[in-house]
Amino acid sequence: MTQAVYSLRLSKASRKWRLFLYLLLSSVLTWFGIYLMFDVLRANDLNILEGILLLLFSLNFAWISFAFWNAILGFLLNLFKRDPITLKKQLQIPPNTSPITTRTAVVMPVYNEDTKRITAGFEATLRDLAATGEIAQFDFFMLSDTTKAPIAQAEREAWQALQERLGPELAARCFYRRREKNVRRKVGNLDDFLTRWGGHYEHMIVLDADSVMTGDCLLTLVRTMQANPDAGLVQTVPIPVRQDTFFGRFVQFAAVLYSPMLATGLAFWQTNTANYWGHNAIIRVKAFMETCGLPTLPGKAPFGGDILSHDFVEAAFLRRGGWSTYLLPELEGSYEEVPSNILEYAKRDRRWVEGNIQHLALLDTKGLKLISRMHFAMGAFAYLSSPLWLIMLALGSIDAVTRAVTQNVFFGVGYQLFPNWPIAKPHTVHLMLIITAVLLLLPKLLAIIITLRDRRAQFGGAIKLVLGALLETLFAILVAPITMTFHAYFVLTVFLGQKVTWDAQAREGLLVPWGEAFKRTLFSSLAALLWGAVTLYFSPLFFYWLLPILIGLVLAAPAVRYSSSLEAGKRLRRWGLFLVPSEVNEVPALRGLEDAEARILADTQSREGAPLPALPPEIHQEMPVQTIERYLRKQKVVQTALQH
Q1: Which residues neighbour 515 within 8 Å (Cβ) at sequence distance 6 or greater?
Q2: Selected residue with higher pLDDT from 500 and 220
Q3: CA-based nearest residue to 325, from 110, 113, 15, 546
Q4: Structure pTM?
Q5: What is the C-alpha to C-alpha distance for residues 570 and 578, in angstroms, rounded to an integer?
Q6: DSSP 3-state assignment of 502?
Q7: Which of 186, 471, 553, 560 could pair with 528 as two cysteines, CB 3.0-4.6 Å apart?
Q8: Above 70 in pLDDT, residue 465?
């Protein structure tokens, strides 16, 4: 279904009160949680260890509070069917059919990827747009930065075969360009395209190597840009599809179930300062070239060098340059694929950890909007929260064991007249546990309620939806400790200066061998066994509180292996569990992807020595590198200190 295009412009007052409301609600809840924890800890004299615990708890509870209120806002907007940006009632109106008067390049940057998959996705998106009859103003570019010679040769042969399948009319709209060296990674890849061919186009739509987008979605993005000349970027919500393993289907189901509501909350308070997720978005070429030439950061990793997670920074620079950036959570037809097992998922996160932590070095950059700074901080804390939780749990265990050992010591000094009776506040502790559980689980329940009302048939019916959501919640609780330890380790390696490699992501479903599963999880499992034994012996009550975390860590290897099972995933699909809309209702673009894959596999003709494809004429333009001025320049601070 094509979304109607409307003006996305908002008044300055509207933008301010929404952000104020979000910050106020989150802050009040955060301070309430901090007070409860402080009330519990101060009862028996707050020591240094508990002071550190309170600080760590405060940071993590704030993170939970912000996520909770984002979900609540998204729920209320969906409940009353209000558009998150305009707040107008969502009405069933005819799709916009205004003429496409601007030219758009659809670009797919690739780097040592599975040639068959990228070619099939590229072809499926192209054909779905062609089926709309409105492809005249679009060109498609595959921008290869492949460095491995066999893959580069395979790309040339696959491109030749694609040209033959498309026929002369569609083939004339497709271009393949390969750089010999992957200079500055994806940033350099897109910069090269823009400085050579960007002058031909008003917009570019960026695909990932695993992206597929429908023709209607592409047209809606272009018409939205035409209707909003202040817009520099419009981001869609990519929905995972085509997963077969248990883990892949778990991630896919959770994303389809929860993402629309959460993205609605984001769109409400971000207004015209939405983030960029690096793909499945449309960008105004002029705006991007004027404001998004990324510099190399001074210093060493993790805060210096090339900007790794470039998308957040580009969105921030677009806003700094006066351009609006929007998120359209209700726009359908934007798809991607996700890693098929826990280890591949963690491998992808390892790349993001370093890039997001690097953003902390940009927090004091002059000219950035407050929301852009929030994106940087929240993106980094999404990973920093894991080691903070782990440290907090470890310190909590030490404190519980220490108090258990010394609980019968009522006279700490020889001249003490009255004993130190331990003070317990079980009601406050229970209240804190209940509040934390509500903050974590209520958003899931609210998303299920909205889905039951609006689109339960797309998940196989109400019963299957609820059963799938229950299974998803239980498995999420099981794997959360595993993810926490992976992220904590990744953060540690980043600060120790270990470099990350940005290789192609494996997306095919393969059963993880036992050896690999144990290799990646054995240390944390053994540590959890020791941790559990000590707390059970000295503080059984605290042990039972830790039990959900300990179970996940002890069972990490079996969880990694069996969740990567194709058979388990297919069995769930036969039972109707973890069904998603793209499986219940056929999506022509996804069917086109499968058809393209089948055609590629059936084509056994050798095209060795295929000629390099022709490229369009170049229009050379400069993309100025942006300056990053800080509110506090380190050099000046050091010089002042030396002078004194």
Answers
A1: none
A2: 220
A3: 15
A4: 0.93
A5: 10
A6: coil
A7: 553
A8: yes
